[in-house]
Amino acid sequence: MLLGSKRVTLNASRFLYLSSFPCLLHTMGTSIVTSTNTDDAERHSNGTQFLIFMRHQCRVGQVKNFDEALDLFQRMARMKPVPSVKDFTLLLGVIVRLRHYTTAISLVKHMYSALGIEPDTITLNIVINCLCRLKLISFGFSVLGTMFKLGLEPTVMTLTNLINGLCVQGNVAQAVVLADHMEKLGYPLDVYTYGVLVNGLCKTGDTLVAVRWLRKMEERNWKPNVVVYSSVMDGLCKDGLVYEALNLFSEMGAKDVLPNLVTYTCLIQGLCNFGRWKEVGSLLDDMMKMGMKPDVQTLNILVDSFCKEGKVTQAKSVIGFMIIMGEKPDVFTYNSLIHVYCLQNQMNEAMGIFNFMVNGGCLPDIAVFTSLIHGWCKNKNINKAMYLLEEMGKMGFVPDVVTWTTLIGGFCQAGQSLAAKDLFFNMHKHGKVPNIQTCSVMLDGLCKGNLLSEAVSLVEAMEKSNLDLNIFIYAILLDGICSSGKLKDAWELFSSLPAKGLQINVYAYTIMIKGLCKQGLIDKAEDLLMNMEENCPPNNCTYNVFVQGLLTKKEIARSIKYLAIMKDKGFSVDAATTKLIINYLSTNKGDTEIQEYLFAYYILDELLIAGELQESSKKTIARLIAAQDSLVETAKEEASSISNIIAQATK
């Protein structure tokens, strides 16, 4: 085959990707459907006239019905002499465009085994394309092997189809290797090959690599089309690189590549993710000026983005615009509204939207039911949540794991942990296996419901079932054991975690420190805190928990020391720590004036920012402010830095 100015011969031994799978042409079943719906074709009694008719219908896109395509194939199969392989492949191409991939493969087998037609490169390219779209990439490479055995040489399209199959299967790295291999063997990549690679890379999140292939495409003097540009812009937007996507959009315009609806939609999604509404409006105006009407998908992006920002009024306005434009809201549109109403605890409004969509003929999906169930659970109205679960069944929907997890969490939050446990085990009866998230929710409910033995039993059952338990599962149990006052058991569990192959995280450390402080073991808690510095740096919560333990034990000097460490690390006191400090200063003027000043120094900003102080605390705050004002000059004279003041206070 001539490739550019160079003839290349490719044989099986030189190609690295051949599969050992048997050729699918010898294993696929044959299924030819007969029909009588060929009135137009039957008018042409002469075989030649029929073939002219068939070719015209295929080339101008008039064969839009799958049954009609099969009728045409059946008519061709009855002809004597049998039409050429070229005519059959023309019709097979139509069947592939109609996405009936399995049937197309069966028809090729029928041509080969029943009609005696030897497949050519184009026919086998069609088979490879179908297999790749069915995610049967190994069989696709097997057909490539058959091509070699038949003495047929692959084309650029053959290898591009295989590259597409690898991308569809998510194996983009091998697709890139295959593309490089193609070029080394003298097969030049064309626009379609580049487009397939760029699209595959973007879908797997390798957008920057996709950009490099885009530039490589331009270096080879191929002009990227709107599909390639749109794929890259979509990937950039999903990676949060909206500025780069807009630059590429401008580049498109400079190169006279007109954007399409997909281009605008991916840019609008990217801009909405960052709340850049003014630019969204400009893009919509540009679309309308170009005669492009935003479709339901584009408008749904606006509705969903407004809902995520809590801007329900604007979301409703977009839906109104959608209806005026002749677009019918779909289940995604309604679910965005329902979800935000549920989050805002406006369940009457959420149910109103639900009833409106059902009465309007738009069937809800599992996501809609799950949103409503979550809303009623959050509202602690378990009866309504269970009612919706029953309605799901009546409408033919099977609750998924997310729905069950939501419902179990709702029962736990309502203080009905035993009922939640029943639901947990009922999942199996409905064919759903709890995942790690479901187990976490159930375990947390049992621990907070003071059902510690049940919680321990659940973890033991999870261990026996070979679930991949993570540190968060054990941290939940650890918290439950600490809360029940069984510190010895908690320490044993904590110490055993590394032996289970788990890295103790900041959450587990903080729970253990809190448990030790609660039992008055401040020194041991401090040792654990120091140990964290080597393995897992403490966070804001860790320090607050430890300072609270110090304040509870009236360890004022040490608490000031750790408040200083917190401030130095950029951490701030939380509400619980602030309350303990205010309570202490309300009943004590401080062991020394300097300690009072230091307390003011470390918490005053947080108190003022909070802005919500009880009347009983205001006098204390006024005293703190006065202490800060009166002592600041003295402090400056006595010490050159705040570290000296701290050292003085903690002597």
Break the fold down into its secondary structure elements and pairings:
Layout: E1 2-3, E2 6-7, H1 39-42, H2 47-59, H3 66-78, H4 85-97, H5 101-113, H6 121-133, H7 137-149, H8 156-168, H9 172-184, H10 191-203, H11 207-219, H12 226-238, H13 242-254, H14 261-273, H15 277-289, H16 296-308, H17 312-324, H18 331-343, H19 347-359, H20 366-378, H21 382-394, H22 401-413, H23 417-429, H24 436-448, H25 452-464, H26 471-483, H27 487-496, H28 506-518, H29 522-535, H30 540-552, H31 556-568, H32 575-587, H33 593-610, H34 615-638, H35 642-649
Antiparallel strand pairs: 1-2
Helix pairs in contact: 2-4, 3-4, 4-5, 4-6, 5-6, 6-7, 6-8, 7-8, 8-9, 8-10, 9-10, 10-11, 10-12, 11-12, 12-13, 12-14, 13-14, 14-15, 14-16, 16-17, 16-18, 17-18, 18-19, 18-20, 19-20, 20-21, 20-22, 22-23, 22-24, 23-24, 24-25, 24-26, 25-26, 26-27, 26-28, 27-28, 28-29, 28-30, 29-30, 30-31, ...
GO biological process, one term: chloroplast-nucleus signaling pathway
Pfam family, one: PPR_2
Protein name: Pentatricopeptide repeat-containing protein At1g12700, mitochondrial
